[in-house]
Specification:
mainly beta, Jelly Rolls, four-stranded antiparallel sheet, binds 2-oxoglutaric acid, binds manganese (II) ion
Amino acid sequence: MRTVMDAISAAPLYRPVTPGGKAFSVEMTNFGPLGWVSDRSGYRYQAFHPLTRQPWPPMPAVLEELWDRYSGAGSPADACLVNLYRAGARMGLHQDRDEADFSFPVLSVSLGDTAIFRIGPPETGRTQSVRLASGDICVLAGAARLARHGVDRILSGSSRLVPGGGRLNLTLRRARLA
Ligand SMILES: O=C(O)CCC(=O)C(=O)O
Ligand SMILES: [Mn+2]
């Protein structure tokens, strides 16, 4: 947690806007060579923080180790999107499709408050609700790589891990081709 908070202090959390101009309710930043950003021009990966214009902080070694252990991928993650959900924040149903090669999984680590996570098949069909608690790892891989998913809400106050309260979700990705 300490390592993650130190990296966040080097790349401040900010609230991006959707291409349509609506503010996200989550605050975001990134670690690693590339970071996922959203603004009026669209969604993309880029090598620098949109506000400070500085390169994203290095990927913490502990996250590289989790990727090595649980992703099953032969290449390192090159991006880690950090989402901070304070009370009331949510994330709409979406697919992660801004990466170059969907044969690489997306691996997420949840810290702090429990999330009511929603997941379902890639196109249409029933979604289901799953709780993601602090320390849980969720890997979207294979047939589930393009699953629709989102966060309906967080159970505010269910953990005291995150300073100031809330939930941190770290998603490790391989954005570029290997
Ligand atoms: O917070 C989560 O568990 C999911 C985050 C997510 O889907 C994303 O950042 O693309
Ligand atoms: Mn996602």
